[in-house]
Amino acid sequence: MRTLVTGGAGFIGSALVRHLVGDLGETVLTIDALTYAGNLESLKAVAGNPRHEFRKADIRDFQAMADAIAEFRPDRILHLAAESHVDRSITGAHAFVSTNVTGTFTLLEAARAYWEELEGDARDRFRFLHVSTDEVYGSLGPEGLFREDTPYDPSSPYSASKAASDHLAKAWHRTYGLPVVVSNCSNNYGPYHFPEKLIPLTILNALDGRELPVYGKGENVRDWLFVEDHVRALDLIARTGRIGETYNVGGGNERRNIEVVRHICTVLDKLVPAPRPREELIRFVADRPGHDARYAIDATKLERELGWRAAESFESGIEKTVRWYLDNEWWWRPLRARYAGDRLGLTVAASGRQEPAG
Ligand code: TDX
Q: Annotated catalytic, 75?
């Protein structure tokens, strides 16, 4: 199996590449534009492996995509390249529309040009997996779960751009017959996560004795999925998922943000004792504009049809993640020098309220 992975130097992408090359022995071409969130250090484990090749390229560049695909001749394209951080999309939406929407369109066109020339088994075997997010479904109230047939209702520029790209991918299947499968996942966490997202930011700020910003009252709920569970699902969906279908991927681990932050503090206090409990660093800060209240995934379709199960509980996954950050300062220290964790994504209307946790 020859797999082309876009966004393969990012957080989920690099976990996928390490899994495909390292665990499954597959041949992979990684494409990544190496923006601020793409990092070749995340692919160190496969560097020098003859089954892995890296090419710096932007999914918005049709010729670069067409050339990479024509030269590598993939059996499947797993498309993960995207701008992903909600707060950044609030501060500046342009890159999100450009990369996530125009980039996906460009890649779909390059994939279609290649697939239309394929014949026989190669044509039957080809798949395009479009990797997306549960944020396209919008916000849940206290009850219910996102299912594959939940209507799209995105809140942020980021999730709107991902929703648009999902529609493009599905339309390329319906209109041109491109063998597309779509996956929508809940919040990922784990090693090599860029320290702008809640979990790695909390771990590193807590280690540095810095404040731990919790938006609003910390009551928003996310459904946490260990990244290594997710990438196993992606391989399975691309391999055995039904063409034209969507599969939701979730860890079944709903937690309020304040619980997540407190839990990380407890784990860190156990592993690296500090003079004072790290919970004292928690600060409730101005809420994110358009902040979705709750995400939670119903993954039964993936479990029943394709036999996937999340292996990691929230507690075991968090402990692994915290230990990884403790052991891999070489990876994150240079990133912290470039992005120190300053607040992003406040509109003028959102106040800068800051109170100590009560
Ligand atoms: O400092 C923070 N304090 C805080 O309370 C940050 C960075 C976040 N939060 C809150 C906002 C969210 O409710 O924590 C929750 C998680 O925030 P993020 O890590 O920014 O993730 P989220 O907005 O939920 O989106 C993530 O999951 C879905 C990814 O960034 C998306 O790419 C993915 O699609």
A: no
* pLDDT given at position 208: 96
- CATH number, domain 2-193+224-253+294-312: 3.40.50.720
Domain extents in the chain: 2-193+224-253+294-312
Our answer to whether residue 135 is catalytic in this structure is yes
* Mutation to probe ligand 1, out of 152, 197, 295 (largest number of atoms < 8 A from CB): 197
Give the residue whose CA is nearest to atom 3 of ligand 1: 214
Reported pTM: 0.97
Q: Is the pLDDT of residue 351 over 70?
A: no
315 in catalytic set: no
Compute the mean pLDDT over every residue in the chain, rounded to the nearest whole number. Answer: 97
Strands in 134-260 per DSSP E: 180-185, 187-189, 212-215, 221-226, 246-249, 254-256
For residue 257, report the distance from its CA to the centre of ligand 1, in Å.
9
**How far is the C-alpha of 245 from the C-alpha of 93, rounded, in Å?**
29
CA distance 183 to 8: 16
Mean pLDDT, to the nearest integer, of 320-325?
98
CA 346 to chain centre: 22
Which atom of ligand 1 is nearest to 202's Cα?
A: 1
